Amino acid sequence: MIAALAPNPSIDRFFLVADQVRIGAIHRPSELIAVAGGKGLNVARAASTLGGDVRAVALLAGHAGRWIADELLDNAIRADVVWTTGETRSSLTAADPESGRPTEFYERGESTDPAAWERFADRVSALSGASWASISGSLPPGIPAAASADLVERARSTGARVAVDQAGAALAAALGAAPDLVKVNASEARELTGQSEPRAAALALHESLLKRRDLVGLDAPATVVTAGEAGAYLVAPDGRAWRGTLDARGPFPNGSGDSFLGGLLAALDGGAAVPADAAELWQAALPLALGAATANAERAGAGRLDPRRARTLAAQALVQPS
Predict the structure, then answer these.
(1) Is beta strand 78-84 parallel, antiparallel or unpaired with respect to 54-61?
(2) Does the keyword ATP-binding apply (predicted)?
(3) If 0-12 CB within 10 Å is exposed, 13-18 middle and 19+ buried, where does residue 93 land?
(4) What share of the chain is helix, strand, coil (3-state, %, to 5)?
(5) 3-state secondary structure of 259
(6) Can you list the alpha helix ranges (DSSP code H) found in 10-144?
């Protein structure tokens, strides 16, 4: 099972507009797509769509929170919800149908009741049966970055391996707790390592994380740096580096990184054929991650990928030693 933690969810609204978005102008969208979003729920939806056994753990509030809970139910995603005061945030993306170039408006959300946050963290400690726990996206306002490290440690205490996809201070804190898998984009990797080349950044991040895990007696980690059209660079726990590419593009990249992680975890958790040699598992999982990310980009709205299309694309992916 994959436990997808969503500490700061959102109703993500996606407008398709015929013209370039202009300040002061009236825009009449040709289509509106709304999903239970934020990075954590995007991961949950992508992994579930690909056949993964998924449970979302979400901190929700107000009318928006109830809409999200209903949407998860409608999508057959099991949800373990912690309710707090206030209102869950919303985010808006506007893009034209041809280029897909987005203009984005992301609410930060409301400050969370500390008691509700503690209940959320306790729910993570009570996870049962998860082989992977993903921690994705921002923390609610008022929650210190150190809470990301606490979530890593709580999830690990349940026996789950922990995957992290965050940014800034929250990511730095999570890295201090030495998760099993870190997935970042090229820009985030450059900030972390000072390496502008994605392969070098993935290797540097792996070396740093390996040292932290060695200090506390943990097995070797894996790191992934996604690089858009240049593909993704994976350093497996055994230290081997792989580059995965896919010669296909879509106009709507929003959520592709989340779908990548959802696809990767679905494959690692049994959503793809498991090779006889366990050391090859990471290499075998990379195509589904690439297929999920690209299928996501072909449809407006984060994490709304077609599973058959994702697997067709996965079969076309090229994975080579890097």
Answers:
(1) parallel
(2) yes
(3) buried
(4) 40, 25, 35
(5) helix
(6) 39-49, 62-74, 114-125
Residue among 239, 311, 320, 298 nearest 271 (CA) = 311
pLDDT score recorded for residue 277:
62
**pTM for the full model?**
0.95
Q: CA-CA-CA-CA torsion for 275, 224, 167, 85, nearest 10 degrees?
A: -10
pLDDT for residue 81 is more than 70:
yes
Domain 2-321: what homologous superfamily?
Ribokinase (3.40.1190.20)
4 CB contacts (<8 Å, ≥6 apart)?
A: 40, 41, 43, 44, 47, 54, 55, 56, 57, 133, 134, 136, 262
Nearest to 41 by CA among 86, 74, 85: 74
- Residue 95 sits at φ, ψ, to 5 deg, of -150, 150
- CA 159/CA 126 separation, integer angstroms: 11
Residue 224 CA to residue 186 CA, distance in Å, equals: 10
Taking the CA atoms of 299, 304, 309 and 314 in sequence, report the sign of the dihedral they define: positive
| pLDDT surpasses 90 at 280 | no
Of 245, 302, 261, 260, which Cα lies nearest the Cα of 100?
302
* pLDDT value of residue 96: 76
d(C-alpha 74, C-alpha 50), whole Å: 16
Name the residue among 107, 8, 106 with its Cα closest to residue 60: 8
- The CB density around residue 312, as the number of other CB atoms within 10 Å, is 13
261 is written with which tokens? 């992680």
Q: How many residues does the chain have?
A: 322
DSSP tag of 59: E
pLDDT at position 278: 61
Residue 13 or residue 98, greater confidence: 13
Residue among 71, 69, 78, 176 nearest 127 (CA):
78
Confidence of residue 26 (pLDDT cuts 50, 70, 90): confident
List of E strands, the chain: 2-6, 10-16, 31-37, 54-61, 78-84, 89-95, 102-106, 132-136, 161-165, 181-185, 222-226, 232-235, 241-245, 318-321
